[in-house]
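Thread amino acids onto this structure.
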């Protein structure tokens, strides 16, 4: 299915692309196809060659290293946005991380350090990125992040990441409430399981992936392209009446409590 959206006068920053499987890249592809100019931030110089490869030959793109937990990196990143674009229409936060130790054992045993890291990287960075973006965002601006249903129901081993995603969803509502007066919307996309680098670090992800597909009303998992399509809707004026929401793209898996054959 293709929907024609013209974003040729728009600009976007996508934070959190590691490779072609990243959900951030699936979103960027839709923005680029609609003519949007897109800047990318990536964490650590080891990801630079991959980003250079992905963006090669794509008009209107640029890349910059930024650890989202570093105020200095964020200051430099948004200065670059101002220099390249002058303003910002869309901000995509596609960042999540929890130390593996926090996802292997019991939730009860979560250490303060692992808690702080998971919530800082996976939830607080949405707040800090939005604050840096605020002076550059215009009426009609839109912010989107990525969450997961383990915020609402227990998913074994997801542990502190479930808490971090609950914080991200709550932060989305608070940000939407404060930025609404400027005509800026903030939403988060709750994606079903997708095979990405971040997913590989979740113990038992393969089983979770199969089970989600079996229980979903559509009998399959949603795809990264479908995440990109929802992001395009929420970022562009197609979603102009939607803000503060957690919107699911999971082939319906989250509505099921159990499937009786
Ligand atoms: P990914 O590994 O491709 O992307 C995660 C990105 O986060 C990477 O680019 C990584 O470099 C970046 N990152 C981590 N710490 C960072 C930091 N301190 N500063 C800057 N960047 C940092 O995996 P993905 O699955 O595309 O993840 C993107 C988002 O989607 C995450 O928020 C993830 O929780 C969410 N999500 C993923 C799934 C799934 O099944 N893959 C499902 C629902 C939600």
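Threaded sequence (261 positions):
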């Amino acid at each position: 299915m293709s929907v024609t959206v013209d974003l040729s006068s728009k600009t976007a920053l996508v934070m959190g692309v590691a490779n072609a499987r990243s959900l951030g890249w699936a979103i960027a592809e839709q923005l680029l196809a609609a003519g949007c100019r897109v800047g990318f931030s990536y964490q650590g110089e080891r990801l630079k060659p991959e980003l250079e490869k992905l963006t090669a030959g794509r008009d209107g793109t640029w890349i910059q290293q930024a650890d989202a937990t570093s105020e200095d990196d964020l200051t430099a990143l948004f200065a670059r946005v101002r220099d390249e674009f002058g303003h910002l229409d869309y901000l995509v936060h596609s960042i999540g991380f929890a130390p593996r130790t926090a996802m292997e054992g019991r939730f009860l045993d979560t250490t303060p350090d692992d808690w702080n890291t998971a919530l800082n990287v996976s939830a607080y960075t949405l707040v800090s990125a939005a604050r840096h973006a605020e002076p550059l965002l215009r009426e009609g601006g839109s912010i989107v992040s990525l969450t997961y249903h383990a915020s609402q129901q227990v998913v074994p081993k997801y542990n502190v990441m479930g808490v971090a995603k609950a914080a991200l969803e709550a932060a989305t509502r608070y940000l939407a409430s404060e930025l609404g007066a400027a005509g800026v919307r903030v939403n988060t996309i709750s994606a079903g399981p997708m095979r990405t680098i971040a997913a590989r670090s979740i113990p038992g992800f393969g089983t979770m992936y199969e089970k989600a597909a079996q229980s979903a009303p559509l009998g399959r998992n949603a795809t990264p392209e479908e995440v990109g399509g929802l992001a395009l809707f929420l970022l562009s004026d197609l979603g102009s009446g939607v803000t503060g929401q957690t919107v699911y793209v999971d082939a319906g898996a989250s509505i099921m409590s159990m499937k009786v054959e």
